């Protein structure tokens, strides 16, 4: 499928999570408005090294972002008087980024191959998922002080994918490790990986 690419440093979008974004650069303001109007998915490209960001031509692959990216739909929450936007990018899945397409736009439009994932929870991973949920819950009640926001956050932790994505987004301090979680194709592997990180104290406080 065709995706709009939004490259960012140290940002990963997980399926079934929502990423708030402040948009202020003119080319990305145009991209977000078109994506919202035409329901075109936006892929959040993980920039490995901002020093290697280069121009890219149609027919080439984007050299400065990871090949695997989370993608989602755009919801414009607020358009400010200065023209900047607050948007929610609602994660739907992940794609393998392909070649850049000829678009005539100041932003990158490229091919995106949807990558299927195994999302059925194995019985052997249930206890580890429960441990992740308990730690995430404690983090929520410690760091989100507004009761309504806290309750809304907790209401969106029903499915294993939602727990895993939120846990990786908020409790894994290393951004490269977050991207590693995204790139696993099996929900159970993600759970076991996060559980190992928890046991090795590789989490935020």
As residue ranges, the low-confidence spans are none
Output the structural class: alpha+beta
Whole-number total of structural domains: 2
Query: Strand order, biggest sheet?
Result: 1-3-4-5-6
- Spell the H/E element sequence: EEHEEEEHHHHH
Alpha carbon gyration radius:
17 Å
Number of DSSP strand runs: 6
**Percent helix among the residues?**
25-40%
**Mean pLDDT across all amino acids:** 94
CATH topology of the largest domain: Archaeosine Trna-guanine Transglycosylase, Chain: A, domain 4
Assign an overall shape. globular
InterPro entries: Lon_prtase_N, Lon_prtase_N_sf, PUA-like_sf
Domain Lon N-terminal: 3-202
Pfam families: LON_substr_bdg
Organism: Bdellovibrio bacteriovorus
């Amino acid at each position: 499928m065709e995706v709009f690419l939004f490259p960012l440093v140290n940002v990963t979008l997980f399926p079934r999570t929502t990423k708030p974004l402040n948009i202020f650069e003119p080319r990305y303001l145009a991209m977000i408005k078109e994506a919202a109007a035409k329901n075109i998915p936006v892929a959040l490209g993980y920039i490995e090294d901002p020093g290697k960001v280069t121009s890219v031509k149609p027919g080439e692959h984007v050299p400065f972002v990871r090949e695997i990216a989370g993608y989602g739909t755009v919801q414009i929450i607020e358009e400010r008087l200065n023209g900047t936007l607050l948007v929610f990018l609602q994660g739907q899945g992940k794609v393998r980024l392909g070649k850049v397409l000829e678009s005539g736009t100041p932003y990158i439009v490229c091919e995106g191959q949807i990558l299927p994932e195994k999302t059925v929870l194995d019985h052997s991973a249930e206890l580890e998922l429960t441990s992740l949920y308990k730690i995430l819950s404690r983090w929520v009640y410690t760091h989100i002080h507004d009761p309504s926001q806290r309750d809304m956050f907790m209401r969106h932790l029903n499915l294993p994918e939602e727990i895993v994505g939120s846990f990786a987004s908020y409790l894994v301090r290393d951004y490269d490790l977050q991207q590693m979680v995204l790139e696993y194709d099996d929900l159970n592997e993600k759970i076991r990986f996060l559980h190992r990180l928890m046991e090795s104290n590789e989490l935020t406080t």
